Amino acid sequence: MAERNSKTIFSGDELKRIISLVRELEATDSSKQKGIRAKIRRIGLYWSEVAPGLDYTVANLQRLFENGTLKLMDLEKIDVKPSTPKSVVDQQSPKPIRQIKISTDTEISQYMADGFEGFIRAAELRDSSFLLPKEAGVYVVLRSSQAEPRFLEKGTGGFFKGKNPNVSIAELTENYVYDTKTLYIGKAASLRKRVGQLLRFGEGAAVGHWGGRYLWQLADSANLMIAWKSTPDCDPRTVEARMIQSFISLHGKHPFANLKD
Q: How far apart are alpha carbons 8 and 227 in whole angstroms?
């Protein structure tokens, strides 16, 4: 029988399903494994082609992404082209990432043009945080929904050191910036560690990611989208500061969940 070509690039939804099926394989007996492997193949992953000799485990799946055998799609192939030429941060002499001109999916496509990756829903990234690089960088939290935001009096954020992360709905409404998808801009010495802390805080864990806590009082916080960019030759603090100042110059205020410069 001719060998089939396995897909090597998957969307966030596909990856979430694959992880779930691989976990199921690890936990089930051999009599049910054939059917589960067939479901994985229907998604496009032929394990014997990309991981010959390796067992079906989440740890091995992680290795396949870390060594570049498998990759995550940069969003669901947005069919929008940036209206201005691509600009990338000069790694030798840090400059502001392009001012993001807002209100349509062009904002997301501009982030992509500037080298941001991921664009994964918060709920999905919690299950696949190994996709985040360990390197330093910056990250953004985006809200792609066009619906009016709905705020919760009590969000899902953790009580770090016993402090209540929730603020009044009036304060949230006052801080929200309506003509942008960008809700939060952050920096990280390790993107995997820092974004992981952000996500755990959003699930209610008492971890030290107090910044960005407004995010978790949005009713649709599980659907917020996270994208990131490694900055191997730049101080991420410099890049973050310039991005925030660029945002302020456009909107006259900080991103919704950034409480300080």
A: 20
| pLDDT tens string 175-191 | 999 989 999 999 999 99
d(CA 226, CA 62): 19
Rounded to two decimals, what is the model's pTM? Answer: 0.66
Backbone Cα Rg of the chain: 20
DSSP H helices, the chain, are 12-27, 30-43, 47-50, 58-66, 106-113, 122-125, 169-175, 191-202, 236-251
Judged on CB neighbours under 10 Å (0-12, 13-18, 19+), 45 is buried
CA angle 84, 138, 115 (to 5 degrees): 35
In one letter, which amino acid is 181? K
In sequence order, which residues have a C-beta less than 8 Å from that of residue 103 and are 6 or more positions away?
Answer: 179, 180
Cα distance between residue 233 and residue 91, in whole Å: 5
Number of residues assigned to the chain: 261
